[in-house]
Amino acid sequence: MLLGAPATQAQAQPGPAMPESLAQSDQHDAVILIYHRFGENTIPSTNIRIEQFKEQLESLKNGGHHVLPLSEIIAAFKSGKALPEKAVAITIDDAYASFKTQGWPLLKDYGFPATLFVATDPVDQKLPGYLSWNDLRTLQAEGVTIGHHGAAHLHMVDEGVKAARADIDRASARFRAELGAIPSLFAWPYGEYSPALIRMAQERGFEAALAQYSGVAAMWDDPFALPRFPFNERYATPERFHLISNARALPVIDMIPKGPLLIEGDTNPPAYGFSLPYPVPGLSALACYPSHAKQAQIQQLGSRRVEVRIDRPFPAGRNRINCTLPGPDRRWYWLGKFIYVPGNPVD
């Protein structure tokens, strides 16, 4: 999906919508997967081995999953339309050449759609190992959705809104010149975002923006901070993939803190908690794990309020809290929370 031009005013975003029951919540969530490189085995931190990727695609094919275009899932979130059970979207960041030579041929064989988020500077600079504009036009003609990933792959929170806006506008000009229009879906570089950056993305007319912390995306999430599960060689075991691809979103309301950003003067670690709109069986088995510490202490207040107590401050940079709960049919609920501690002052 492409934009004709950036919007000049922020678009009003609907408030969180909740299904009427726990049973219905599974019709309004989706697992979004993120990959970077394919078969580039000398760079394991951002690579998936081809045999691993084939195994994952086979698991999706035979596991009752419905692999849908990302734009279709986001449209369903916004409209309230029900999604099929085990809805999955496949996304790729950074436009490495191995997507065209290794990843996309396999996805085509399985008939699975994909969204490729492109940072335009490496493409313009013709850096080795990256796709060209001709490659991107070919992929788009073959059905790949092209997404917006900025120009220079900035750390946007640390660089500030002004720099981020200029970076996005520069990339948008290149997309318009080379592809004829501006992608309407955006992925935050490094998965880093803030409330001010979300407002800026809305002003630029994007329909949604994707983050990069583990969690199942759902209709009640902020459409400009949708979670994705990243995969690389180390974190691609069949057991982990099965757990993630079959996960469900834990329906929550009244979450604190609302945003991800901890700036100077904020309490660190923050008070973290959420409520459930309806009872969830077996809630006492909920476990939460901060990325920088051991399992957190959980206090359940009544039948529907959960408070998570973390015993040490989050360090500078990207952090997360993952909460999991065994669910029906051996499908786990998975709730992710992104926490960012800037290294520089935030404007």
TrEMBL record:
InterPro entries named in the record: Glyco_hydro/deAcase_b/a-brl, NODB_dom, Polysacch_Deacetylase
Limits of the NodB homology domain: 86-347
Keywords: Signal
Sequence segments annotated as region (Disordered): 1-22
Main subcellular localisation: secreted
Pfam families, A to Z: Polysacc_deac_1
Residue ranges, compositional bias (Low complexity): 1-15
Superkingdom of the organism of origin: Bacteria
Annotated compartments: Secreted
Task performed by this protein: Is involved in generating a small heat-stable compound (Nod), an acylated oligomer of N-acetylglucosamine, that stimulates mitosis in various plant protoplasts.
Family membership: Belongs to the polysaccharide deacetylase family.
Protein name, per record: Chitooligosaccharide deacetylase
